[in-house]
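Objective 1.3, modelling of assemblies. Example input:
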Amino acid sequence: MNSLIELIPELNQAFFETLLMVGIALAIAILLGLPLGILLYVTDQGLFLENKFIKRVVGIIINLIRSVPFIILLVFLLPLTQLLVNTTIGPLAASVSLSVAAIPYYARIVESSAREIDKGVIEAAVACGASPWLIIRSIILPEAKPGLITGLTITAISLIGYSAMAGTIGGGGIGDLAIRYGYYRYDNTVMFTTVILLIVIVQFVQYLGDFIAKTVNRR
Amino acid sequence: MILLENITKKFQTKSNVIVGVDDVTLSINKGEIYGIVGYSGAGKSTLLRCMNILERPSSGSVKIDGTDLLQLSNKDLRKARQSIGMIFQGFHLISSKTVFENVAFALKAAGIEKKAITKSVEELLEIVGLKDRINQFPAQLSGGQKQRVSIARALANNPKVLLCDEATSALDPGTTKSILTLLKRINQELGLTIVIITHEMEVVKEICHRCAVMQDGKVVEQGKTYDIFSNPQQPLTKTFIQTVLNFDLPPKLLQTIHGQLIKLQFCGDMAAEAVVSDMLQTFEVQGNILHGKIEYIQDTPLGIFIMEIKGEKQELDNALTYLRQRVNKVEVIVA
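Predicted structure (tokens):
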């Protein structure tokens, strides 16, 4: 018990570090993964911006990143991390590789939730003479919104898992704490505490995601 | 208004090329309601989708009001599409948006200002009779109401043409009728040219001024609806007409017939009963009407009667000659 109380400041710091790196990665995923996913969708065959070349090139790049195991990606991206944030340790550094992993991950989820939209609705919009931008803004995004939010939840939870791996190479966060105390020092109490903390976070994220998805569903 | 010239649409599949529309030339006049009928797979839907380039024809030209749509840039094509409304069998409304927002979408597409949009949407919903549903979502509406919303959306930018892709096929007969009445009213009040794709001859009979019958990607027959109904040429057309004008007699009844079985067709305002009773009085024949119907094809009656006539051979021949002079079409079914 005493050791737990002693741990609180460190646990607290770890918690915010995790929050920071996952938060940054999620924000980047929305900022870049979302448009990329939409791009993949609208360049699909039979859609209003059909473009085999773009579709294929973007698809290949995404698959390329997604096929690299995250732990390898971490190491591989160290030079880029150094370039961007001027360091390779700490949560900010970890958020670089987390973001790189999150972008294609979320892009694919966006693409598949956009595919759920009734093609006829998009066709009706094309028949109205709507511009591609208007169709994306007024039809694809609102119609896919519940799926986009559920997808963001899935991405967030995966990122929490990934962040533990980032911890192993000095990224900080809860995962890092678990490995340092639990694995290297055989301190089961700390390990269990961090695991429980992770479970609580994941449950909370899932609950929050489901709740928001339900709220925005206007049908 | 709509001029299609030598439209061919081919679809490339993995193994072969499918010809959806095969060299169709069609001219649709301003202000008319034009029906295109055919079984599914006949290419009628593809042909309709060529009219606003939802489907780009492999060859041929599509002219709407003198503009060749295939020559337009993407931007100009979008502009042109704003004056071509379209409604679908599946309504295709945005499920996450209200009735108001769905109609407003079309106006937004045309770059109309927000203030003007609110006013226009209200007017449009007034036309289709759904003003009280303005804030509801599509899921809360019935099929007929959804189609009304999509009609309002299609009319949003004062189009010159309205394309209807099986617009009533998903609706029950009563709702179909009310939607057709609405389309007819729009046609008369706004002078809109309407093209209707359907497999229901009933729809054509109800509102189309002219129609075309399609089979295997080709137009096999076209003309005024009344002429098509009263004098179909192609076997397929006859089959379609039969869905509305069916005069098959029960086999049991046919066995009891001893005289001649004839089919009389009256077009327009001919007094059918008078002709028949004149014939019976003038000649020594007995007549018995077995089946008959007067169908009104857009207010012009088309009467068809099936009669059994009995008598001496000479009298029967005379009676038939007499009928042939007074009636549009006499057909001896069983001599």
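The mean pLDDT of chain A is 91.
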